[in-house]
Amino acid sequence: MAFESSLVFGMYSQIKHSLQGSAQGAGPQPQVIIPSAAFSGSIISFILCPSELVKCRMQIQGTDSVVPMSRRYGNPLDCVLTTVKNDGVRGIFRGGFTTLLRECIGNAVFFSVYEYVRYHMHLQLKSASTDHRNLIDVGVGIASGGLGGIAFWLAVLPLDVAKTIIQMTPDKNATRNPFQILSSIYRRAGLKGCYIGLGPTSVRAFPANAAAIVTWEFAIKLLGIKRD
């Protein structure tokens, strides 16, 4: 997560800066934010896909009814090696297309919400006392990051559900088309089925992304990097 976060925030900042050019300070620009965020998401999907496959496969080993003792992995490396042995290198990238979609769309939504909330909150609070500027910046970071995180998962949780099913299904011949999987879920359980796990995901998303944004903005300030 540390590597993934540093990569996505770093790439987003650099691409956004390059695309903005001399138009900095003109407020959020969707034609800059969306491609910057989507490209960053596409790159980190190649890291997230194998790491999440290993994480999910290790997590479902909690009960014998799910995974018999004879088929359990000893550790994450054993999971990787066993997957490569059984399915080839492509096996650890199972669900890669769905992860790519999730990260491109999700990050475009996240950074759009973050940038707009941040911009308009600072616009409303620009006349506030400079004595409380640091406190205001933290509050804006919490609100913009937390709301961005919630928006991310509201937009792409169905894709995450499909990704998990693709990665965990033992049948090698099962479909890897996320839209076919979601269509099947929708027929059986409706929209609620496509958003299974929304509660705990939302509970995690707000504080995790709020903390990430506050830390990121504090680091930018600490390093003396200029922001629009």
TrEMBL record:
Keywords: Membrane, Mitochondrion, Repeat, Transmembrane, Transmembrane helix, Transport. PANTHER family: MITOCHONDRIAL ARGININE TRANSPORTER BAC1 (PTHR45624:SF15), MITOCHONDRIAL BASIC AMINO ACIDS TRANSPORTER-RELATED (PTHR45624). PROSITE patterns: SOLCAR (PS50920). Belongs to the mitochondrial carrier (TC 2.A.29) family. InterPro entries: MCP_dom_sf (IPR023395), MCP_transmembrane (IPR018108), Mitochondrial_Carrier (IPR050567). Its main location: mitochondrion. It comes from Pyrus ussuriensis x Pyrus communis. Signal peptide: none annotated. One of its GO terms (molecular function) is L-ornithine transmembrane transporter activity. This is Mitochondrial arginine transporter BAC1-like. GO terms for biological process: mitochondrial L-ornithine transmembrane transport. Solcar repeats lie at residues 28-120, 136-222. The keyword Zinc-finger does not apply. It is found in: Mitochondrion membrane. It is a multi-pass membrane protein. GO terms for cellular component: mitochondrial membrane.
